Amino acid sequence: MERDLRQELRRLRLFAYGSTSLLCLIALTAFTRTFQKQKFEEIDVERINVVEKDGKLRLVISNRDRSPGPIFKGKPFGYAGGTRPGMIFFNDEGTENGGLTFTGSQDADGKYRASSHFSFDQFNQDQILYFQYTDNNGQWRTGMTIADRTTVPITQLVALQDSIKQMPDGPTKAAATKRFMEPRPGEPIFAPRVYVGRDPAKSALLVLSDRAGKARIRLAVDSLGRSSLEFLDATGKVTRSISDQ
User: Fold this and answer.
1) Quick count: other Cβ atoms within 10 Å of Cβ 109?
2) Which of 15, 28, 140, 240 has its CA 20 to 30 A from that of 199?
3) Which domain holds residue 19?
């Protein structure tokens, strides 16, 4: 009886040692695989999220359907996702601050539309430096824009804009829309300051604008190779012009 008991205890010890060793091996393997760099020759994926240790987004690479809508400090706002295939960047607070998007398709009649957009956002606001190509069946524009924006957070502007949209049509809504577009505080909501690019008329352009976004200097070379330099007032009237003719 005593001998059988000792044998049983011995078997229990061996089982315990074996189980403990196996659990340690599994844990060590899992730990090693967690921190081991993986290598893939090719992967198919609909979305990749690059996050910080606390879960905040830093970069999203996605197809159209799984693309995110605007995000401010980790919370969605504005419109829903599913419209922006490409890459979206996020700052240290988990707020969107730029991205790279692209589209292009042709219908049954052979007409096509295409676009590419690479932008950088002002803190808590929208894009202030962007490179853009837009093409409507051969009528295309491409260039770089540098802009000014108000310092009012974009979430406040979107909330105000949504409340105006819900108003019934009439003088009150028209007045609210006009007030919405007024500068705040002392700066316009959006004002392009520098544009360098090519317009649909095939002219190469350099346009410098004032703080209200009004073009004041326009340097151009048109599709026939004719060059010109124009100075404009705040109403858009050309006050002086220099050309090679």
Assistant:
1) 7
2) 240
3) 1-39
